[in-house]
Design the sequence.
């Protein structure tokens, strides 16, 4: 508003023969342009960034361990989240049975917090990934953004662990349907 008032004051105070002032970021009123002004729409800017988007090395390493269909869907999920300004990374892909057994032992027969309730995960065989939200280099575990990731994952046809029933939800988990 202040820029508009300044421009109007200059317009009416200036001489008839001098150059006419222009609004900031506008073309001269005396010249007509057939080229539209560049868009300042935030979603257009986000989409432009998303079109140049590439998965981070950690995500690529983990995606390389899962089946090709999940690799493609995982990248698209990450791309869409990045277009919304969210930084998620694929922190787990395929696991061996021994790796799953070790996770299952955590919080039971080994120190640590319980992180899984099954020894028969879809990670075994490369049909599941886990995503983690990051703020800088720090993982964020409790965030509404996992719900957004879940909604996008479901739009893509993935099964989201945040929708599981029986008190055993796993919000970072995405898998191909059985």
Sequence:
């Amino acid at each position: 508003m202040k820029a508009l008032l300044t421009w109007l004051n200059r317009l009416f105070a200036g001489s008839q023969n001098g150059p006419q002032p222009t609004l900031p970021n506008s073309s001269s009123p005396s010249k007509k342009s057939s080229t539209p002004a560049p868009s300042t729409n935030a979603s257009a800017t986000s989409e432009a960034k998303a079109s140049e988007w590439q998965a981070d090395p950690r995500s690529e390493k983990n995606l390389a361990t899962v089946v090709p269909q999940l690799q493609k869907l995982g990248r698209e999920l990450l791309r869409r989240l990045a277009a919304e300004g969210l930084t998620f990374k694929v922190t787990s892909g395929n696991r061996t049975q021994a790796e799953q057994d070790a996770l299952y032992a955590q919080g039971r027969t080994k120190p640590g917090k319980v992180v899984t309730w099954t020894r028969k995960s879809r990670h075994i065989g490369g049909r599941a990934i886990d995503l983690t939200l990051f703020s800088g280099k720090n993982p964020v575990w409790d965030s509404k953004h996992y719900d957004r990731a879940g909604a996008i994952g479901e739009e893509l046809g993935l099964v989201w662990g945040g929708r599981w029933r029986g008190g055993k939800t796993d919000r970072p988990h995405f898998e191909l349907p059985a």
Observations:
- Residues 55-175 form a domain with the Muramoyl-pentapeptide Carboxypeptidase; domain 2 fold (CATH 3.30.1380.10).
- Strands lie at 88-92, 128-135, 138-140, 159-160, 173-175.
- The chain is about 35% helix and 10% strand.
- The longest strand covers residues 128-135.
